Amino acid sequence: MIPAPMIARFSSALPFWVSLLLLPLVILSARYGGWAMLLPPLGAWWLYAGLDTVLGRNTENPDPETPDSYLFWYKFITWIWLPIQVVLIYGTIWYVTGSTHLTGWEKLGVFFGVGVLTGSIGIVYAHELLHQSDRFERWLGDLLLATVLYSHFRTEHLLVHHPWVGTRRDAVTARYSEGFHRYFLRVLVSGLASAWRAEKAMLARRGLAPFDGANPFWRYAALQMGALILALLVGGWEGLGLFAFQAFVAIWQLELTNYVEHYGLTRKYLGNGKYEPVRPHHSWNADHKATSWQFINLQRHSDHHYKPARRYPLLQTYPEDKAPQLPLGYPLMALAAMVPPLWRRVMNPRVRKWRKDHYPEITDWEPYKRGDFPDPAIR
């Protein structure tokens, strides 16, 4: 176990700052266009995946009782990402819309790269911030989500995904043999409505109407409208279109990650509308070193769902008999998910093994696949 004094060192936190190394790649893509447009996705998807093959896995666990005051340098990179992302998005809109050396397709290519960063880094940081009790950090998370037009993710993630992961009530738990493209459309259609229902139910328990000012959807709408107006002011209609495109790419990146994290895993139905509690084996785990730096330990997803309030530098990893392990880090698993036959070939045998290991008493999985069991009640 890594002791708290060692965790507190800046040198221990520094590897989690690797996201900053991807920013120059966007600058180069905007400056040169052409082949340079490949740099951001190559950096985000292949650079750290390649480093995983060299550095291997990190099975060491930090002391989970490390005081929060020891984690300043880990928190600081998530705090400063909002101004960085704002400059990245709107600065690139200003530069690209005023340029004469880029074709229309090249401009889209540049903003594909921007979306890769805002999705694989910005939303990951927003996710970390939204799980904290500090209002400042939650506001940073809300503002980051507004820059990718996905503000309702906060509600859907905290009020639906975490309580009901592994059940049909949770849309982002990918079903066994469900291809990513079908999953992506299903989540896009159902996510916003699911978040609205969750907030409506919470307001009703407080005796408030759905459109009461306490509903965070008012805040979500205002922040997203502000983000859109700023894009229009900086880059005109072209800038607005490029902003929307990077937001779509970021959302696609997020949902690729969601797809990978829980594919095929279900919680046991106990009867009377109840499911077993969430345990580490209800999420796919990955402790590959370099991609864990890139995704600030989001790959230690088994512990994140078991202890959602635990900050990312303290997340634990587990042996395979406690939590199912992905064969590769998130970037390469996400690319495999884009090819459903390849994905099923890699992952379906692992899901079947997981079923035998953790639920040998269940001999018929068809009711889980069909969704025969009732949805848990919204709380």
Automatic annotation (TrEMBL):
Claim: Kinase is one of the keywords in the record: no
Topology with respect to the bilayer: Multi-pass membrane protein
Pfam families named among the record's database cross-references: FA_desaturase (PF00487)
Main location: membrane
Residue ranges constituting the Fatty acid desaturase domain according to the UniProt record: 109-330
Keywords: Cell inner membrane, Cell membrane, Iron, Membrane, Metal-binding, Monooxygenase, Oxidoreductase, Transmembrane, Transmembrane helix
Subcellular location: Cell inner membrane
Entries under InterPro entries matching the protein: AlkB/XylM (IPR033885), FA_desaturase_dom (IPR005804)
Record's keyword annotation contains Membrane: yes
Stretches that traverse the bilayer: 6-28, 71-96, 108-126, 217-237
Family membership noted in the UniProt record: Belongs to the fatty acid desaturase type 1 family. AlkB subfamily.
Name of the featured protein: Alkane 1-monooxygenase
Source organism per UniProt: Sinisalibacter lacisalsi
Organism ancestry: Bacteria, Pseudomonadati, Pseudomonadota, Alphaproteobacteria, Rhodobacterales
